[in-house]
Amino acid sequence: MTTSVQPINEAKDPVQRKSTDLNNPQMPLIIGGLIVGAILMIYLMATQDMAQPLLLVIGLLLGYTLFHARFGFTSAFRRLASVGNGQAVRSHLLMLAVAVTLFAPILAFGYSFFGTGVSGYVSPVGISLLVGAFLFGIGMQLGGGCASGTLYAVGGGRTVMFVTLLFFIIGSTVGAYHLPFWTEDLPAFEPVSLATSTGLGYGGAWALSIALFSLIAWITLVVEKKKKAPKMAAVPSATGWKRILRGSWPLFAAAIALAVLNALTLMTRGTPWGITSAFALWGSKVAQFFGIDVASWGYWQGANAQALEASILTDSTTVLNLGVILGAFLASAAGGLFKFSKVNPKNVAASVIGGLMMGYGARLAFGCNIGAYFGGIASFSLHGYIWGILALAGTFVALYLRPLFGLSVPKSKDSFC
């Protein structure tokens, strides 16, 4: 069995071991992770409103789910683009189907836990979106993971992804600085919601979404049959109840869990799950520390200005991100898989370029694979579908770039782990 394609994208990742390599739980790491989580939870409960501790728990569950299912967006797009395997993309469609089913009543009736009101991610369609999503598609194939993949791979100990994350933050910060040019000086259409802009309402938009997901799933099956695409091999797993704690989880189970957790996020903080806005905040705070007048940037005017001046732990996206990393860390330790991996110069170069492209692209495209693709489509926004198309186009281009950095490109004869 070859290892050209892995669920979190690189063959030498420490979590991609054979079924006989499942180790005993790494109890010192688990205890340490639980202590860190408890300290952070206590701090949030003492200093923030109750939404923040709840978001930390949701983030932990997101990270645990992502790691145990090896739920990837990058590898799913690459498999489809390279050899026509659409199994993972169909898990995306299941996730989106469950998400729109949950989001429709929440958005229609304004259900929330803390009475803050709810709103989906519905963004304009213009040059900014097209360029940003295309750049992100290339970047995630070079950087070795998307936004969620970067976080959970860092939590799992994949060393090169720390490089990707660093330059993801830098790219997102530069993108925030340049964003007014892309959104104010270049043409764009107004945001389009399948529910509120078309007269369909949330019920009609839900039915249309399910029809679109079914059509896309059928197309992937046709492509698979035409290309005789190799199937994904079973992922190593514990058995019985231990599988819940130690993995690996079926993709369909993770798809449902991620959709439910995203809906809980919407009801907790009033907006869906997002990742990369926190990267722009982190990078801007560092730039501000070194004397750069970040507050004068157009991105940090208006509603965003308060976030720049407050502690990062008041930022709900930051809390979710920390939860994802910690959840993935606990999941990897529970499976006995946490171990820092080796890196080589070509992988580092790809991570630098990929991270910069993803960070910059995410700001231009109003989000990443989570905020724009997952959150956008779940919110019935047209921009989410366009993001997916352009990111897939970027993936096709990246297939020609990956060999330059020593990264594999799957062939039709390969099997998938």
Automatic annotation (TrEMBL):
Keywords: Cell inner membrane, Cell membrane, Membrane, Transmembrane, Transmembrane helix, Transport. It is a multi-pass membrane protein. It is found in: Cell inner membrane. Residues 1-20 are annotated as: Disordered. The chain crosses the membrane at residues 27-46, 52-73, 93-114, 126-147, 159-179, 199-223, 244-264, 319-338, 350-374, 380-401. It comes from the Bacteria. Residues 10-20 have a biased composition (Basic and acidic residues). PANTHER family: INNER MEMBRANE PROTEIN YEDE, SULPHUR TRANSPORT DOMAIN-CONTAINING PROTEIN. Belongs to the TsuA/YedE (TC 9.B.102) family. This is YeeE/YedE family protein. It comes from Virgibacillus tibetensis.
